[in-house]
Predict the 3D structure of the following.
Amino acid sequence: MKGTKDVLFDLTLPLGPETLVYPGDSPPVIARVSDLRVGDPLTASYIALGCHVGTHIDAPAHFLSGGATIGELPLEVFYGPARVCSLLGRKEIGAQDVNALDLPEGRHILLRTDNAALLHQPSWNGEYTTLSREAALYLASRNPRSVGFDYYSLDPAEGMDFPAHRILARWNIPVYVCLDLWRVPPGDYIFHGFPLRIERVEASPVRALLFADPALSQCV
C-alpha cells in the first residue's frame, strides 16, 4: 500500500515571522497570550495575518470592481479535479506554452514553474516567472475552476496593470498563489483549497492539498 506521502501533497507555505511576503505587506504576527507552561489555566494564541500572505486565493474582487468576493464564490471552485502542468525554464509563459498542454475544460489548472526555487527564499525576488496576457486568455477559454501559480503574482513586478490577473478576474476565475508545487509530478489530481469564511473580502489564506488518489479525497 502506498504511503500518505505518495498520494497526498500539501501545497501550503508555513505561516510565521519568516514567511515570504509581497512587497509592502507585513509578515504574520503570532503571539501567545496565555500559556499552561507559565501557570495560566489554558494556552491561547493570537494571530494577525493579511489576506494576501502565504498560500492564498484571490477572488475576482481583488482586481475587478464589483467582482465576486471570497464569500460570494461557489464552493465548487474550491475543490475538484485538477491538472498540474510543468512549465520549467521559462521567464514568461506564453500562449504557445499553455496551448501545447491540451488542457481539458473545467479543471483546476496548477502551473509549476521555476518559481519554486524562489518561494522558500527569505526575501522577495522580482525575477520570477510570469504569465502573459495571451496565455491568461487561453487559460480562461478552458473554463477552469481556478488557476494556481507558485509565486505571489502572475504578472511582472514592474507596473501596476496586472493584465493576466485582470483577464481571469473578468472571467470570474479565482487564482491561487504561492502554491508549493515543486515536489508534485505533473498529472491529474483532486485539489482542495478552501478559504476561511470571511465576508466582504477579496482574498483568504487557504490550506491547499492535492490528492493523487480520488478515493482518499472522498474520505476527507
